[in-house]
Structures are given as C-alpha cells and as structure tokens.
Amino acid sequence: MSATGIGAPVRRIEDYRFLTGRGTYTDDLNQPNQAHAYILRSPHPHARIKGIKTAKAAKAKGVIAVLTGADVVKDDLGGLPCGWQVTDRHGKPMVEPPHPILVSDIARHVGDQVAVVIAETHQQARDAAELIEVDYQVLPSATSTAAAAKKGAALVWDQAPNNLCYDWILGDEQAANAAFAKAKHVAKVDIVNNRLIPNAMEPRAAVGVYDAAKDHYTLHTTSQNPHVIRLLMAAYVLKLPEHKVRVNAPDVGGAFGSKIFHYAEEAIVTWAAKKVRRPVRWTAERSESFMSDAHGRDHVTHAELAIDANGKFLAMKVYTIANMGAYLSTFAPCVPTYLYALLLAGTYTTPTIFCEVKAVFTNTVPVDAYRGAGRPEATYVVERIVDEAAKVTGIDAAEIRRRNFIPRDAFPYQTPVVVQYDSGDYQSTLDMALKQSDYAGFEKRRAESAKKGKLRGIGLSTYIEACGIAPSAVVGSVGARAGLYESALIRVHPTGSVTVLTGSHSHGQGHETTFAQLVSERMGVELKNIEVVHGDTDKIPFGMGTYGSRSLAVGGSAMVKAMDKIIAKGKKIAAHLLEAAEADIEFKDGTFSVAGTDKKKALAEIAGAAYVPHNYPINELEPGLEEQAFYDPSNFTFPGGCHVAEIEIDRDTGVVQLVNFVAVDDVGRVINPMIVEGQVHGGVAQGLGQALLEGCVYDADGQLITGSYMDYTMPRADHLPTLKVSTHNTLCTHNPLGVKGVGEVGAIGSPAAIMNAVHNALAPLGVREIQMPATPERVWRAIHGARRAAE
Amino acid sequence: MPAVSMTVNGKKVSADVEPRTLLVHYLREHLGLTGTHVGCDTSQCGACVVHINGESVKSCTVLAAQAEGAKVTTIEGLADGDKLHPMQEAFREHHALQCGFCTPGMVMSAIDLVKKNKNPSEKEIREWLSGNLCRCTGYHNIVKAIAAAAQTMRG
Ligand code: FES
Ligand code: FES
Predict the structure, then answer these.
(1) Most buried pick, A52, A81, A417, A562, via CB within 10 A?
(2) Hey, is the C-beta of A687 within 8 angstroms of any chain B C-beta?
(3) Contact state of B35 with A20 under an 8 Å Cβ cutoff
(4) Touching A: B residues 116-145, CB under 8 Å
(5) Residue A757 neighbours by CB distance under 10 Å
C-alpha cells in the first residue's frame, strides 16, 4: 500500500475549500440580474382551489411575475414523472396519478405548490405571496398510514379506491402457511417504522438561467444526480431537447436520498427564467424543507416467524402497509418493494418467505428513499423478530442468530427472495462485535446500573443490505424506467496529469479523494496530478448519480474499465516507441516497460507521444489519450455486519441514553478507511435519530406538527457516545474492485440494535413492544403502564 | 435605507441595507461572503455562526444594524494566508467534515469554546455543540478534532 493509494487514510482533498468558506453551494451562486422566487404552498392537507386572485400580488413592490397552475396548463407542461412502475399481485400496474409542478385544481398535502412569485428580492417575493388570495374548499383528508386503506378513509385520488397505489406480493403464502403448521414456536411483531424527514443541513435550492441568444437553459440545483434531473425535467416536464439544457449540481450540503428526486422547484425556476428573461433563484426555508422534501420510511408491519424445536427459522410472513404520500416521488414505488422485501432473508437461512405490501396514498408529503431506503425497514422487521424469537424460544439473542446464519462456506447463496448473496462472513462480524462490546460481561454492567436505579439493555443487529444499485436488466424487469449503470471518462493530459470525469456525485462522501486514490494507485500518478470532476452535465458523461451506496461499486468500476482502456492503448504506443512487441509491454507504477529489459517509458511520455504524434503508429491508432467507459453491474453488492448497542434508561424521566455502540461492518475492499469510518458514524447517528428521537407527526386534521427544529428532534452531539467502528471485510466477487459500499450501513443496522437494547432493558418490567422513536414520554409511559399492570 | 458600517475580517465595510436585513444575509448577499451558511429559520442549526467582537454568535439572530461598529470575523477570515487556523487544521486532520455545510459554523463555534475553556472534556465539547447541528458526521470526529485543536492551541 502506498501512502496515497488504496487502503490509505488520505486526508480529504476537498476539505480545504470547505474549511475556508470557499465551497460553492447552489445558494452561493449569485447571478447577474437575478430575480428571486417564492413558492406559495397549500396550508391545507386536502383542498379544492376554487379560485385564485393574483392581481394584488402582481402589483406589489418589486414583483416581476406571479405564476399559477393555470400558467402550467397553458404552457402545456408535463407533471413530475415517476421512475419506477410496480405491478401488483394481479398483474395490474400501480395507480399513477399526475404530479403537477403547480396545482391548478386540488392541493393534496400541506406544502403542495400553489403559486410562485418572482420578485427583485426574496423578501419582496415573500411579502407579495401573502397578497395572493386563494379560495380553498377544504376537503376531508387521510394522513394515517394504518388507516388510509380502511373503510371510511377520505380518498386522496378518485382513481385509487381505498387509497391503494398497489397491493404487491413476493413469495408463496400457502407454502409459508404450510411451514408455520409445522412450527414449534411462532414469534410475532407489530411494528411501526416511523416517518422521517431527511434534513440534510443544506436546504434544497435551485437557480434557473435562460440564455435567449442561444435558446439554452441552465439549472443549478442541489441534486445527487444531475443527468437524471436533466432527463426527467427536459423530457417529461418542460419538453425540451436535452442538448438545450445544462444541469449543474455543485457542492451539495448533504442529501441522504432526499436530493435524488426531481422536484417541482427545479422545473419552476427553469421555466420561469425564460418567462421573465432573468435568472431565477429559489432556496428553501427550513420550514419549507420540512413540508416539501420527500420524507422517508413510514411503514406499519405485522410479521410472524416460524421456528422449529432447535431454534431454526422455518418461514417468515410479513404484511406491510407503506405510505407513498400524496404523489409518487421519483423512486417511491420501488422502496417498499424491491428494496425491502428482497432483504427479508437477512443473514439467515430462512427457507420460505412471504411478503405482502400495500402501498397507500395519503394527504402527506411524498415518501421516497432516505438513507438505506427499504433496507432499514427490512432490517428492522427481521432483527426485531429474531430478538422476539430468542425470547419465545428462550435461546440467547446471539446464539439464535448463530444457529440460523448463512454459513461462510455457503456463498454464493441463493435466498428465497430473489437475490443471490456473493460473499459474507456473518459469524466473524458477530464474534468480533460481541468481543468488542464485552457482551459476556453485560449482566455485571446491568447490575451496576440497577444499583444507580437505572435500567440497562443490550441489543444486536446482524444485518444485511443490498447496494451497488443495480443491474439494469434486472431492475428493468421489475419496473425501473431507467438503467442503473455508471459512467467514467479518464483524460490523460499531454504532460501526464489526469482529469477524471464521473457520473457519480459527491455530497459529502469525499469522492474527490477516494476516486483520486483509486486512479493514483492504478495509473501510478501522484494525487496532486489528478482532479475529479462531477456534477455538471456539460462536462461529465451521462451518468446516473449517487444513491444506494453505489458510487464506488458502480462508478469506481466504470473508472477501472476506462483506465484499462487507457493502459491498453498506452501499451500499443509504448510498443511502438520502444520497438518491442505489444505482448511484451508491462505497465506498473506509471511506467510502461519491456519485460526483462530496462527499456521503459513513463505515462507522461506516452501521453506526450499520443498528443504530439510525430513518432506514432498513426495507421493503427488514433492520437490522444482519453477513454470513456460505462459499467453495468452484474449483481447487487451485499454489505453486512453486526451492530451492538448498549443503552441506559432513567426510570424517572424515561430518557434513553446510548452508552456504547460497536459496529463491525463488512463493506468489501476499503479505499480510504478514514472516510469509511466517517460514513458509518454518520449513518449510526441517523439510526439513533430514528430509534430514539425523530418522528414526523401529522395531526388528525392533516397538519404537519413536526415542521421545524423546535418540534422535530435532530440528533445532537450529546445524544451520542464515542462510537467503536471497525470493519471485517470479505470481497465482492463480481466487480473489479471487490468493493461493496458503505454509505448506508450505519443507518440500516443501528435502529434495530438500539431498539433491541431498549426492549432488552424493559423486558424485565413486562414491556412487550415499544415503537420508534423511543422518546422519553413513550418509555416513561411503557415503564409506568407496565408497573400499573403489575400492581 | 440606513447605512451600516462594521469591520469584517479586518476590512472596513459599509452599505445601505433594509432595516430588517439579518447579519447573515448582509454577509452573504452584500459582501459575497458565502462561507457563512443558513441551515434553518428557527436559530437552531448553527450553520451561521460568526464571531462578533470575538464572541460566537448565530448571525441569523442579529440584524446587520446591531453589528454597527463591531468587528466581525467569518470563516473566510480565519486562515492566515494559506496557513489554516489550528481548528481548521484539526477538522481536516480528523475528518470532522463531510458535506462541509455545517463546518463553518462548527469551526467558529469551537474556537469560541476553546477560548473560554482551554481544556474541554468530551462531555463539555458535546454539550457546547448543542447549538450546532451536523447531519453527516455523527459528531464523532468533530468532538475529536476540537479536543485535538484545544491541545494544539494550548501549545
Ligand atoms: S441559520 Fe440555523 S441557527 Fe442560524
Ligand atoms: S458535514 Fe454535512 S452537515 Fe456537518
């Protein structure tokens, strides 16, 4: 390992600009002659717009234009498209309602876009929006996930009876029932996977620019995937040819999935920029983020696990209601189906699995992928029910997992839920995590806590996830309307420095460092001579962007393919210059040499010859040294591992404090261990947020109660202990780097570990199920309810 | 519109601004100092922290007019030429930033902590940071970086 190559904890190249205040986020991009947009949003969860008067606002100081749904209709703009079509259990496609960028007839959630004011300043636009008179006829609304499909629930869409978007199944329920008939024990859980609001610290922003001289549009936006936005916005909403649209996602301040999707505001500013012939800027206020960023999770699930006399799992049945919100966001339908049910085998050999998912519409913000997307929900079901299985069988929680693990010599392992795992070593990650958390010594610590009047609990989560999303043909066969390859272009300049253009996007992951390390190692070029470029559709090749922990597994693999082409071409040039056979040329550490001789040429010399082809095999080879590649993965990757959480509960206040957290993850080959650990830290904090603090709440009238940081509890520094994070890696067998991905593991594995610890602490009091977030109030009520029941 | 004058990062500046202009907007929109960020509208995230006369302040909670005559330091004014402030250096060394959005506020806030408490414990650091949200790092490396910077700054 070199000091800067694969495996080295290189300090990040991008940090200097962020640390000196010179990052360039979308809201930093002031444009000459810019105007500001303010979006008027529906205050009602469900309301017919009977009339809308904009004349006063249009005359207000500084106002340039006021646009409404009627203008959208007049200009024949399309709605925001959905990128995934799920087919239900009867072979029928999901119900797919329209998703207008400004509603003209009915607003369907608090925060739905009703009008936009463009003015000289943000304040003027905001002030003028208050002058718009909307005549709303308030309609009954449905916001509860569990109740949306029940009789009597208000309908969000006429075309979706019972608010059903789809009723989807995987597996054979009869076969599962047959296995249950033979069970010695049955474990059951009823769980709620709480709705979360992603809350990247940078609010979403968009700047639209129209160049009339060239009839060309630019959209600067807070996005994880600029080409996807360009395709969706140009082809479906604004109906423009892509070559007339540039989408630039500069520095992006965190995303966690919430910036994958094509949002109305992106299309609005781009459309408006042409209408007013000025650049149009919009930045969400945080309270707007709460009611317009796609939310995450929001499942209600009943699950049962059949277990034999030896503690072996026989079959599992899972029944889930998943909330889609009022509209289908870009990837929403796949999250509770293909990113969820396919993970229900977990790390276990459960032979038969049945899953039913009813997706429902409600008068709430659309729900879509949020860090982990479907996989934290699956992990929570599996790891909670496995703990329940330990309880009903009387087997220790670690032991019952061990008995059911897929053995390390059983890979590749075909699960009963479609996917085939390529590699893993669940026994070792469990053993290491147990050791590091002193699992054996827990009862002593429990007794010590009891002496202080505190309840202590320990919990495990031996999770799996699927990422590196994903083989295009596979996802296409189950409804994806896009391919999920990635692109890379490697440009070796005449003097040997290198520019790497990638379709992946970095919004905190440190790609400018990790990708440079990868290229440095393979090409023998110093880090300082490599630059990684991402985010601008005018520069990079068409790419699918960053989500689902795919950047290195898919984007990095594309780079390897492109580098292989560079090296192959370099060998031809070297053979010519060194007057040797191509087969005798070796490439190592940036040098092409003739095997067994001291004849050699540095990469820079080869590049020089390629761009100044005086002595060059010009009849066989084109000049230049630049190669592009697209990589389409042949399988998902399957990171996994073990998280152990230890918590203490104050009986009097119900406050749960995480006192120890150990993660031993298997993420495949590690390029930069410092960045890998950082990814796990951040994911675990979000997992702790889900388990103990965060929960989006709508009241019975459909109002968003958790609409600011005063009502929505974000994890803060003092909620967390020092985290003990390490890896035990097996290599992915089907991509050239052996990498699996690490962006989501922290958020996937940790909620179950923390909640299992909470249950472990409360079990002696007779508390059975406590839902996330385990807030002080919930825990206090559980403690006191149990006490009262016992009295 | 009233005129405000102050010293920002050692430079005297003045401008006519609407009375309701917040300091953070003055810095970002009028002076082009976009290193100071806005992450919320309820004064809870700390992305906007700057120093006013050496004290850390959430610049979204003060009007530009309230900083009249004050010495304001933003993240852009911290490094000495190319040489990073020890707190910036420690954040880099300990990977205490990912997306970088919370970072300016974190760094400015942390410097004020270390000014007030030369040798803060882990608990004190975590408590001090209760006014600064980070969604990326889980705070783990931020806490480490601040402790390390405190040590460097003690000399
Ligand atoms: S912007 Fe959030 S506290 Fe100032
Ligand atoms: S580094 Fe992204 S919010 Fe802190």
Answers:
(1) A562
(2) no
(3) yes
(4) 122-123, 125-127, 129-130, 132-143
(5) 30
CATH class as words, domain A485-631 = alpha beta
Assigned architecture for domain B3-77:
Roll (3.10)
Mean pLDDT along residues A47-66: 98
pLDDT at A1 exceeding the cut of 80: no
DSSP state letters, A228-277: HHHHHIIIIIS---GGGEEEE--B----TTTTTS--HHHHHHHHHHHHHT
Structure-token match 């490396």, residue found: B141
**CB-based contact A21 B93, cutoff 8 Å:** no
A791 band by pLDDT with thresholds 50, 70 and 90: low
Q: Quote the ipTM score.
A: 0.98
pLDDT in tens, A641-654: 999 999 999 999 99
- The type of residue at B133 is L
Q: Does A678 touch chain B (CB under 8 A)?
A: yes
List the residue whose alpha carbon is closest to atom 3 of ligand 2. B134
Cα–chain center distance at A540: 22
Q: What is the pLDDT of residues A680-713, one digit of tens each?
A: 999 999 999 999 999 999 998 999 999 999 999 9
Give the pLDDT score at A476. Answer: 92
What are the chain B neighbours of A643 within 8 Å (beta carbons)? Answer: none
pLDDT band at B155 (very low <50, low <70, confident <90, very high): confident
Assign domain B86-154 to its CATH architecture: Orthogonal Bundle (1.10)
pLDDT in tens, A592-618: 999 999 999 999 999 999 999 999 999
pLDDT category, B1, cuts 50, 70, 90?
confident
Instruction: Flag if B35 and A714 touch (Cβ within 8 Å).
Output: no
pLDDT score for A3: 87
Which of A392, A188, A378 lies closest to A302 in space, CA to CA?
A188
Indicate if A299-469+635-790 has the same CATH topology as A17-139+201-255+259-292: no
**CA quadruple A19, A21, A23, A26: dihedral, nearest 10:** 140
What does the mean pLDDT of chain A come to? 97
Q: List, in sequence order, the alpha helices (H) in A31-163.
A: 55-59, 69-74, 122-129
Topology given in CATH for the domain delimited by A17-139+201-255+259-292:
Aldehyde Oxidoreductase; domain 3 (3.90.1170)
Sheet strands side by side (includes A498-502) = A530-533, A498-502, A486-492, A626-631
Q: Which two tokens stand for residue A370?
A: 């949020």
A102 contacts A41 by C-beta, under 8 angstroms: no
Beta carbons of A166 and A95 less than 8 angstroms apart? yes
Single-letter amino acid, residue A147: A
Q: How many CB atoms lie within 10 A of CB A152?
A: 7
Q: Specify the DSSP element, H or E, that contains A66.
A: strand A63-68
Helix (H) or strand (E) run with residue A209 in it: strand A205-211
Interface touch B101/A201, C-beta < 8 Å: yes
Residue A181 CA to residue A323 CA, distance in Å, equals 32
Q: List the A106-107 sheet strands across, edge first.
A: A106-107, A47-53, A133-138
**CATH code of the region A299-469+635-790:** 3.30.365.10
